[in-house]
Task: structure prediction
Amino acid sequence: MPETTAGTTLKQNRALDVTIDFWVLILLIGLVSSKALLAIGMGGFAVTALYAYLKNRPTTDSPLGPFLFPMLIFAVTLWSGVHSDNTGVWLDFIAKKSPFLILPLAFYAVRDNMQEKYLTHLAIFVIVTSLISLAVLTNYLMNFDAINIDLSKGKALNTPIDHTEFSIFVAYAAIVSLFLYLEPQHRILKVGSKSTFLLLSIFLTLFIHILAVRSGLIVYYLSMGLLLGYHFWRQKKYKLLVGLLAGLILLPTIAINVVPSLKKKVGYMRWDLKQYSEGKGSSYSDSERLYSLKAGWEIFKQQPVLGTGIGDLKDECQAIYQRDLGRTLEHYPHNQYLFVLAGMGVLGFLLYAVSLFGPLVFFRGTYTPYFLGLILVVLLSGLVENTVERTYSIGFYLFFALSSYCQMAGVWAQRK
Result:
């Protein structure tokens, strides 16, 4: 009888593991293709994870504290509603930030499972992103002339999700794929794993230039350069380090002159900035970004401690656009840090910083290149985007940050 009970429990645990794997797959596909799939994946994962915790609690003695840091972002968003008059917008932000409250507990609940499959999930993300990128590239080549004309007018390649977020995810996938190749202990596939991930990294590197989204390119070059530079320096491969520096200078220079889509985009950017300098850029994308930064800075200076309140931030921006441009723009400040400073003030900014950097302090000495790459991608993209305020990016950051916490918590427990 005990053997039967043990066998039944084992089957139930395997079924739960398979169910968790299924929701993770849906989540990762949704990240680069569909907001609905992303929401379904996150919800299914959270419910299954909490049920699994009640059925069979993890055996790893892992700290809960680091998993609570992301909750600060939800807390500060909730708190900012106290002095927001526009409660409708504030409630929208509360709903959008709810994963920061729910997913940390879900990941902690199944931390053993997520630690064991950490690299597998990274590999799946690389493969899914590569397949979606291949589809985008195919569409571009099939409509080459028409899309290049659109690019010269400031438009972007057709992507299944927002092109800026997609480009940032491609940058991270290229980084992850290369380090799955470089790190010798990381064997995902039994046959040909090293060559597979090297080829995928090369493909994604070429593709991100064809995609021609400046945010993604900036994030790619700075993050890849810093991570590879540290990798080669640590291994004392100084000749490769010099080659890396040369490549970081030559590759973008060549790409701007050779890749048609990137050449068109750079040409449009120069024209747009010229319009802005002449005071005629209120209807063009780059100029609108610059106006949004000016508005954000002005709002922050007016209310530096608590900010205007997250619910009222857009209304305040609209008032400044109307005053200065004679029209409204549908833009929050195009900078994560300025967004937080304007909407939540210095106090909110400090809580955001604690949320992002707290786990770095706690898990020091256990970092993987994938975690460091994620932090670099998020911090750098925040200079040009509202990374932690957008649905896909929230899912992206939380999944890979919390997965990394699970992996590092396992290392931490072993050292303890």
